[in-house]
């Protein structure tokens, strides 16, 4: 082992390292516009372009490292990758094999002493079409950068045809929100969590704040866990949340009275003053240790899923199986979809205002949450019948 590199495979584990695997590559070529002398440094130069956005860095690093580990297994440097390799990798993402070599439960990348965790794997399992599309887009961007820098002779990803859009992509997007009865059931379940000891009450206070913040603001989980309390400020008597979003772009989200009341309640439970001050560096959401330590995006996801699953079990016992199923399928990002759906479908809602609140780059993204057209289409279909009306029994008429 030398530096951060591991030059070989030990047992069943991959050649993993804190940065990347084997450092393949050659000396700089004439006209090269970056100083990298090997593939690892070349990839690092590409990732460094996103230094202003930790979330983008993490995503780019993950996708680049997975791809680099894969070509390393083939003995290929970045310069030697051809169109056929790109096609093979795209298919590999659908079913990483051998599975025991590439896939495994989510584990920390490194041990407490900084060494590589032998149980860590690059994938949990096969990727969905949407994730494959995103991954390939990232690697395409990597090769565009390296090609423009003169490090590789060309971008083989440009030679691939585009992936077909996922079937019923619009409808799937449209369905990923909590129906009103599921949202009501979730609220009722969360209220039951406050009954118990002091630890239960602390857990309840945090869970109530998490779901309130996610729903009322529509922020993404990474934006939530990376925020500090002083990002909520009062301007001309109104409270605003300055959110750092995708690509490091910031936007101001209005904070209504209910969200401020929930924030004040949560802060009080932490032993803080009800309102945040400009120098308050307390995490927007903390762990329950009492030390005001931030939680990770992964921890937030797991916590939200646990609450949603428990709410589904609780709701199932009431006989509302549809709401229970809706809750069981939901995740952290569903709260953003639910927030958007409920905001745009309020009678008289200004779509442009909602789009700004959600910080969508294009208003067409916001329009996908509008259900008016779906309702009208469904209502119009009621007149399309084969049998006479008096012989048709509506499911809504059945007890």
What does the model show?
The protein is built from 16 helices and 3 strands. It is globular. It is mainly α. Strand 2 (238-244) and strand 3 form a beta hairpin. The model is unreliable at 1-23 (pLDDT under 50). Strands 1-2-3 form a 3-stranded antiparallel sheet. The protein has helices spanning 39-47, 54-73, 83-94, 99-102, 129-148, 169-175, 180-192, 198-217, 221-225, 257-269, 297-316, 321-329, 332-344, 351-358, 363-367, 372-381, and strands at residues 232-235, 238-244, 250-254. The protein starts with 38 loop residues before the first helix and ends in an 18-residue tail after the last helix. The protein has 2 domains: 39-166, Orthogonal Bundle (DNA polymerase, domain 1), CATH 1.10.150.130; 175-378, hpI Integrase, Chain A (Orthogonal Bundle), CATH 1.10.443.10. Helix 7 (180-192) packs across helix 12 (321-329) and helix 11 (297-316) runs antiparallel to helix 12 (321-329). 47% of the residues lie in helices and 4% in strands.
Query: Could you state the order of secondary-structure elements as H and E?
Result: HHHHHHHHHEEEHHHHHHH
The 3D shape can be described as globular
Mean pLDDT, rounded to whole units?
83
Largest sheet: 3 strands, antiparallel
Residues in helix, %: 40-55%
CATH class label of the largest domain: Mainly Alpha
CATH topology of the largest domain: hpI Integrase, Chain A
* Strand order, largest beta sheet: 1-2-3
Q: Would you report the number of β strands?
A: 3
Distance between the termini: 71 Å
Model regions low in confidence, pLDDT < 50 over at least 5 residues: 1-23
Number of helices: 16
CATH superfamily of the largest domain: Intergrase catalytic core
């Amino acid at each position: 082992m030398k530096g951060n590199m591991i030059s070989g495979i030990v047992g069943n584990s991959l050649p993993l390292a804190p940065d990347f695997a084997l450092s393949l590559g050659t000396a700089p070529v004439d006209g090269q516009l970056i100083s990298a002398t090997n593939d690892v440094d070349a990839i690092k130069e590409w990732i460094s372009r996103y230094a202003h956005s930790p979330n983008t860095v993490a995503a780019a690093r993950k996708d680049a490292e997975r791809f680099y580990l894969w070509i390393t297994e083939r003995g290929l440097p970045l310069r030697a990758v051809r169109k056929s390799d790109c096609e093979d990798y795209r298919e590999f993402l659908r079913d990483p094999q051998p599975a025991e070599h590439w896939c495994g439960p989510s584990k920390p990348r490194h041990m407490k002493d900084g060494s590589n965790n032998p149980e860590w794997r690059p994938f949990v399992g096969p990727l969905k079409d949407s994730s494959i599309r995103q991954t390939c887009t990232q690697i395409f961007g990597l090769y565009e950068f390296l090609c423009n820098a003169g490090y590789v002779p060309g971008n083989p990803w440009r030679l691939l045809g585009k992936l077909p859009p996922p079937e019923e992509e619009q409808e799937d997007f449209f369905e990923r929100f909590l129906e009103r009865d599921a949202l009501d059931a979730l609220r009722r379940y969360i209220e039951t969590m406050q009954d118990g000891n002091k630890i239960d009450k602390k857990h309840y206070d945090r869970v109530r704040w998490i779901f309130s913040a996610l729903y009322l603001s529509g922020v993404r989980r990474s934006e939530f866990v990376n925020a500090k309390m002083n990002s909520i400020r009062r301007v001309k008597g109104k409270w605003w949340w300055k959110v750092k979003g995708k690509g490091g772009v910031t936007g101001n989200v209005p904070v209504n009275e209910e969200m401020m009341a929930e924030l004040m309640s949560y802060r009080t439970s932490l032993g803080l003053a009800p309102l945040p001050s400009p120098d308050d560096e307390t995490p927007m959401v903390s762990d329950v240790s009492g030390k005001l330590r931030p939680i990770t995006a992964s921890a937030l996801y797991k916590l939200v899923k646990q609450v949603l699953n428990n709410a589904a079990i609780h709701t199932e016992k009431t006989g509302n199986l549809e709401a229970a199923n809706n809750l069981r399928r939901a995740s952290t990002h569903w709260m953003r979809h639910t927030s958007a759906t409920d905001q745009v479908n309020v009678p008289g809602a200004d779509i442009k205002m909602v789009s700004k609140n959600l910080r969508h780059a294009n208003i067409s993204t916001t329009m996908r949450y509008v259900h008016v057209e779906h309702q009208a289409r469904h209502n119009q279909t009621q007149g399309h019948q084969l049998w006479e009306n008096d012989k048709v029994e509506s499911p809504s008429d059945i007890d």
